[in-house]
Design goal:
It contains 8 helices and no strands. With 129 residues, the protein is mainly α. It comes from Ramphastos sulfuratus. Its main location: nucleus.
Length: 129
């Protein structure tokens, strides 16, 4: 369901791997009985037209059912915890020109990428909270 990398791709405005995230949340939020029924009915291929036409925009994330919101919220928190530093520390380093200039070009680029990733994750937390 998740793909080879085992990750979902979130953008500023929407989930870029929306099909994978939708299916994963749907399955993980099912009761055992719902899952058995879904599996028996070969539900993997026959999702409703409504689900096929929906997009996981940021607005749609805020309207997820409570169990799915909690699961996604907790997953985002775990992802943020996997970083060595928090968003504030990254911002401070970006704002400190002297310290930033001491970084190699590659380290500066990595800092920008990490900072952007963390900002998106914090945005998702706000939408789900």
């Amino acid at each position: 369901m998740v793909g080879e990398e085992g990750a979902f791709v979130l953008g500023w405005d929407e989930v870029l791997t929306e099909e994978e995230l939708s299916m994963t949340l749907k399955v993980l939020c099912m009761s055992e009985e719902e899952f058995k029924e879904y599996k028996e009915q070969a539900g993997w291929e026959d999702d409703s037209e409504e689900e096929e036409n929906s997009t996981l925009s940021n607005e749609a994330l805020s309207r997820l059912k409570v169990p799915c919101k909690k699961l996604l919220y907790d997953s985002v928190l775990l992802t943020l915890e996997s970083y060595r530093s928090d968003l504030k520390a990254e911002q401070e380093l970006l704002d400190n020109k002297e310290a930033f200039d001491k970084l190699s070009g590659r380290e500066q680029q990595a800092l920008h990428v990490r900072y952007g990733q963390k900002r998106i994750l914090h945005q998702v937390l706000e939408l789900l909270g």
